[in-house]
Amino acid sequence: MSGPFAHVAIVGLGLIGSSVARAVRACLPQLRVTGYDANADTRRAAAALGFCHDVMDDAASAVAGADLVILAVPVGRMADAAAAIAPALAPGCVISDVGSSKADVAAKLAAALPGHAIVPAHPVAGTENSGPGAGFATLFAGRWCILTPLSDTPAAATTRVDALWTALGARVEVMDAVHHDLVLAVTSHLPHLIAYTIVGTASELEEVTEGEVIKYSAGGFRDFTRIAASDPVMWRDVFLTNRDAVLTMLQRFNEDLTALQAAIRRGDGALLEEWFTRTRAIRRSIIAEGQDDPAPDFGRRH
Amino acid sequence: MSGPFAHVAIVGLGLIGSSVARAVRACLPQLRVTGYDANADTRRAAAALGFCHDVMDDAASAVAGADLVILAVPVGRMADAAAAIAPALAPGCVISDVGSSKADVAAKLAAALPGHAIVPAHPVAGTENSGPGAGFATLFAGRWCILTPLSDTPAAATTRVDALWTALGARVEVMDAVHHDLVLAVTSHLPHLIAYTIVGTASELEEVTEGEVIKYSAGGFRDFTRIAASDPVMWRDVFLTNRDAVLTMLQRFNEDLTALQAAIRRGDGALLEEWFTRTRAIRRSIIAEGQDDPAPDFGRRH
After folding, report:
1. Among B173, B194, B248, the residue to mutate for chain A (most A Cβ within 10 A)
2. From the candidates B128, B266, B298, which should be mutated to test the interface with A, based on the most A CB atoms within 10 A?
3. Nearest in space to B221 (alpha carbons), one of A202, A249, A106
4. Rounded to two decimals, what is the model's pTM?
5. What is the CATH number of the domain that holds B92?
6. Residue that terminates a domain, selected from A125, A152, A175
7. Which pLDDT tens digits describe chain B residue by residue (302 residues)?
8. ipTM confidence score
9. What is the CATH number for A254?
10. CA dihedral defined by A244, A245, A248, A251, rounded to 10 degrees?
């Protein structure tokens, strides 16, 4: 089947863009897929990997004739990417993206592409790896994809983008962009900020060498290094474009950390045990909801 | 082969104690293994699982005739566990443990068991699961086990405990207990404290429901919930017995987090990108050292 669209153009062929292309080819084989990336090496690698029908050397050629364009570039580059494709878009072409912050992106797409239906999207999925070789077709299977249509987005366009992501195996939710940014600030952005922080802290200590940190990382630290290995440019842009929500959540986190710090200082074991018992239940819910692997250690080989 | 000991008694049959028993049975089949746990349900479960030759109903019977006792109880219970076995120990019996903090435990074991060779040990391995059913024989394979002998521990006793852990597949390092506590404060205790904090923070927000946190946890949060699902009593005791090192490391973390917070507030993308690029290299080193799985997402199923 061809699904809700006939020709999708993907601008940005890294982990997410290339995974979308692969998933479309696997799940919607009649849908034509063209691609473009600003980086010539990435274009060459993508062409060799063959997950697009055609990889073009300029963005305008990639989007020509498409009835859906998905921008899969760092959120700080959305405005430029939108401006580059604007003159080449077919009338009625729907515009979407895969960015991790939504209010800022939605505003930039609306400003750059007046007259087009804009359906901002955020598939909540990824890995710590980057680039066109890191993608895979099942990345979105069972994961949530959040759509944040604008007030003037036609409902039919949202329905078509919903149908596309459903066909790729995702579960779709429609949400206000501002609320999305608050929810993701706590479930994604703050965890990344904290992981980046502690991995940096651990690598700069005088009393403990970096070699020791690496050697004894299996006590918990290594879990943080996975997240702190995520794409630096993508994450720089997420923090710059979702600043207020991230700072709000960081303030809550700091209050709680200060409370636990004080409990440790005064030897309040009851408070610590109560807190640690409560957090245990959350993981059971995440596994029950199908959002993580129940195998110990995420199923790492032992 | 029987290895460096003839009869090991394991006091505490949870994740780590039961994994030691299983690893001994698998790697050193001639070595007799007796076990005891203060919890009657745990004793019954352990007996049914069969990883000890005998599970005893009191600690004294379990350690009678043993030439090695391994205390695998929460570090806050080490002193009581040592006092309970003291009258029943054979002369020359070596005492070890598996606790995650070492200076406090070493002092307590030395005070409770004068005249015995004490070789405190910390196998840097584990999962988020607890109890006798959660253990497995290969938990320590390729992981480090740190020994922190006291100044009066006979070198021969340390050598025998080293040989035991080596036989179980671990890589052994000897270290000063105080330095151990500082190293593990950063590679294990601080990561756990931060994970416990953020999971608690996320579950108590007014603006974002717990259901939303669970649903969209694949953006990074779910990694933290694994660590925050670890045993509450064990971790309460770790923070109470390694307080100073944990508070020192937390201070460094707070300084760095404040710096990144300020960079986000003033929109300093260059600082963020530089920081996030540096942390990426640490993960490559951890994988190269064999301390984590190179598969994306730790090898979670997709």
Report:
1. B194
2. B298
3. A249
4. 0.95
5. 3.40.50.720
6. A175
7. 457 999 999 999 999 999 999 999 999 999 999 999 999 999 999 999 999 999 999 999 999 999 999 999 999 999 999 999 999 999 999 999 999 999 999 999 999 999 999 999 999 999 999 999 999 999 999 999 999 999 999 999 999 999 999 999 999 999 999 999 999 999 999 999 999 999 999 999 999 999 999 999 999 999 999 999 999 999 999 999 999 999 999 999 999 999 999 999 999 999 999 999 999 999 999 999 999 988 999 888 77
8. 0.94
9. 1.10.3660.10
10. -100
